[in-house]
Amino acid sequence: MRYGYFGSMKAKPGQRDQVVKLLLRSAEGLSTAGCHHYVIGVSDDDEQTIWVNEVWDTREAHDASLRLPETRAAIAEAMPLLTGEFTSREITVLGGLGLPPE
Amino acid sequence: MRYGYFGSMKAKPGQRDQVVKLLLRSAEGLSTAGCHHYVIGVSDDDEQTIWVNEVWDTREAHDASLRLPETRAAIAEAMPLLTGEFTSREITVLGGLGLPPE
């Protein structure tokens, strides 16, 4: 069953755009790691929060991606720009539109 | 700029699977209405909540989809199965993986 990780992170004031850049850069390499969706968004009424919605082949593929050198480098670069406030929810993805057949 | 709608709804006890079926059925027709992602998921630790993450070409395409006869029929069918508790967040999608080029 596909694994979804729906979360948010909060950037320090003025750092949101830089964090978005880092996230977009890391997204590029994830398709070969079993990632189908990695959607990054912001809200007009919140200048610090960044939302990230991910859909992976499996939870294991997601967890393994966190150990990739490029992911670790992006996390290390982003962490000082973040307040440390995160939300996250792990989801079993049941289907929908925009995903290749299982 | 693409429009994201990240939300959840709560089904009455025992009705979650039926609501998921209705949502999956309505997802099928949305690609021609400007919808890129319509991901439906549930969580192991919550037997009533259903998460829906949508990415649309525009906010207008999303709003227009709510007026489609098939969407209205699905909403009418689902509403009696729901508790009325919803969460939602509107997002400006900045990019990521799993979306066609703009």
UniProtKB/TrEMBL annotation, chains A, B:
Record keywords: Monooxygenase, Oxidoreductase
SUPFAM superfamilies recorded: Dimeric alpha+beta barrel
Claim: S-adenosyl-L-methionine is one of the keywords in the record: no
Signal peptide range in chain numbering: none
Gene3D superfamilies xrefs: 3.30.70.100
Stretches assigned to the ABM domain: 3-91
InterPro entries: ABM_dom, Dimeric_a/b-barrel
GO molecular function: monooxygenase activity
Listed name of the protein: Quinol monooxygenase YgiN
Taxonomy of the source species: Bacteria, Bacillati, Actinomycetota, Actinomycetes, Micromonosporales
Originating species: Actinoplanes italicus
